[in-house]
Structure formats: C-alpha cells, structure tokens
Specification:
The chain has 3 helices and no strands. 81% of the residues lie in helices and 0% in strands. By secondary structure, it is mostly helical. The protein is rod-shaped and about 190 Å long.
Length: 172
Amino acid sequence: MEVGGMEDEGPSSQNELPHNEDLQLPQQESLCVESSAPVENVYVDKKAVDRLTEGLLSHYLPDLQNSKRALQELTQNQLVLLDTLDQEVTKFRECNTLLDLNSLFIEAKVYHNKLVNIRKEMIMLHEKTTKLKKRALKLQQQKQKEALEKEQQREKELERERQLIAKPAKRT
C-alpha cells in the first residue's frame, strides 16, 4: 500500500485512477462468477467517480498518512532501541571480559604467591643444607683430628714401649 505517491500528487492526480470502463469489466466478471443472475451494465458519470474518489481519498488519506508517520516513528524508535541494545550487549561483553581479566589477575596473584612461597622454601632449604654441610665438615675435621690424636697417642705409646724395652748394655 503505497501512500507516498498519492501524498505528493494529492487527490487531483486523476491520470492514475482507473477509468470507469476498466472498473466495470472485472466487477462484471466477479459478479458473474458469484451469482448466476444476469448483471446489468451500470454506467456512472466520470465526474461522480472523480468526486467519490476525492471524497474517499480525503476521508482515508489523513488517517493513512498519520499511520504512515506513526509507523515511521515506530521504525525509527525500533532502530534506536536496537542500537541501544547492541551497545548494552557490547557493555556486557566488556564486563564479562573484565571479569575474565579479573579472574586471570587473581589466578596470577595466587600463582605468584605460590612462587614466592616456593622461593622462600628453597632459600630456607639452601640455608639448612649449608649449615648441614658446615656441620658435616666440622664433624669430619673433628674425626680427622681425633684420628690424628689417636695416631699420635699410639705412636707415643709405641715410642714409650720401645724406650721401656731393655737394651743390652755395651761391653767395653
């Protein structure tokens, strides 16, 4: 239903209106099909058709134009709503992305804390192993010292025993 063409030209554009004879044939055919009674040819004055057409257009055209304007306004409002909805969807996607980023940062912080704890444990274990190595070295040195002292003590005892062994006197 194109109202725009009529709106521009107005009701005075009668060149596009069908002629009376053009209207009669389809009406007669449809009446013949619908009823079996013979149809009389009705002739209507062209001025009357023009006046009726103008009256019909003047009666319905304002309502149709108002409806067209309302539909255009609704269409425009729908486009605005669709655009707004698209922006809101984009905002929600960004929020989800930010939530994902937040969870990633939280997860990264947790793993960072785990790494810091592992590093502290490694430093503590290194210190303990260093202390144990020093202690082991001291123990080894002490054992070596004790072994050396034992060896020296044994040598002294052997020397003492040698000195205690009777020596034959020399004859002169």
